[in-house]
Amino acid sequence: MQLADWSEHIHEYGLSSEYLIRQAEPEEWGIYCSVYYNMRYIGFFREEGFNAPRKNEFWIYQGKTRIGGVRMAPNRIYHLFFIPPFQDSFEVLKLLKNILMEWSDRTQPIISFEILPDQVHLFARAGFWPDEFRCRWMQRPAEHFNVNWDENLIIKYPEIIVNEIGAKQFVNQDEIALCDFNSFAGGFEAVRRKKSSLEDFMPDEDPNYTNEILTKASTLVYDKDTGQLIANCRLCLQDNQAAVYSIGVLPAYRGRGLATRMLQRALSELKGNYPLLRLYVMEGNDAESVYFNLGFVPGVQELQRMYIPANS
Questions:
Q1: Does residue 215 share a domain with residue 91?
Q2: In a domain, 6, yes or no
């Protein structure tokens, strides 16, 4: 059955007379994804099942034979995998691209994100443009550290409240935004995340992706003399694991080990609650050396995204 319109409730979409996609039950789909997606990548995330229900998991069928899986929705395609001995991955991706062109808002790009090395050429052949940023996950086990802070510093952690419209926010979100703006503006991370103004750095999203344990493992560092927030490290939940959402230090305070100590504090607070801490780092970021020196091990390098440009 050939359908152009997207719906979460449609069970099956015909791609051609030979291929179709069918909505999948997340638990079983996640098992297959964890085996066939990319073993170097999966080995890094080995405690995950890739089975978080997102209502966009599909099996790919050739006739009655299941030959792969994918997550896709309007303007999004990711976690594409194929089950051996199937070989014609390019033909299938072309068909998936065709139906995405029908589903999607073409005033916006169609995006595939965190593209692993073995699929970069495949997506490029199908007409996806490569992003300029290459990133990778890093991780290390939680561990207790004896963290010593200078006497002229005040150490706190963020507090979250529910505002008058029922949304979560940090109590001091304005000063966190100013600290992030002065830490990142004009740098690699700001360019990658397309943030240029103070308003862009307002932390209105990450309070929804954390919990009490992760909040208490986050760190706000103040200069005791000026009262200024000079560094902060905020943790979030990433596929049920602890991850660094953002870490930054004002330029005037760099070189004093603040980033190292904030991460050590996070690792100490997580010990006994989460087995490890993850972070996502862009190639060329000066902070990579800090992470390596703390024992973070890198995963597979990936293109942050590939995309089909929006119609102008």
A1: no
A2: no
Question: What's phi and psi for 225, nearest 5 deg?
Answer: -75, -40
Taken as a whole, the chain contains a residue count of 312
The residue segments making up the domain with residue 248 are 139-305
Alpha carbons 12 and 20: distance in angstroms, whole number? 7
Distance, in Å, from the CA atom of 60 to the CA atom of 77, rounded to the nearest integer, reads: 13
**Residues 148 and 297 both lie in one domain:** yes
Query: Are 149 and 297 contained in the same domain?
Result: yes
pLDDT digits (tens, 9 = 90+) for 160-190: 999 888 889 999 999 999 999 999 987 777 7
Work out the percent of the chain whose per-residue pLDDT is above 70: 96
Tokens read off for 22: 């069918």
State the CB neighbour count (10 A cutoff) for residue 84: 8
Closest to 237 (Cα-Cα) out of 261, 212, 262, 260: 212
CATH number at residue 197: 3.40.630.30
pTM here is 0.84
Token pair for 16: 């051609």
Alpha helices in the chain (DSSP H): 26-36, 39-44, 89-103, 117-125, 173-184, 188-192, 212-217, 258-270, 288-293
One domain, residues 272 and 212:
yes
Instruction: Report yes or no on 185 lying in a domain.
Output: yes
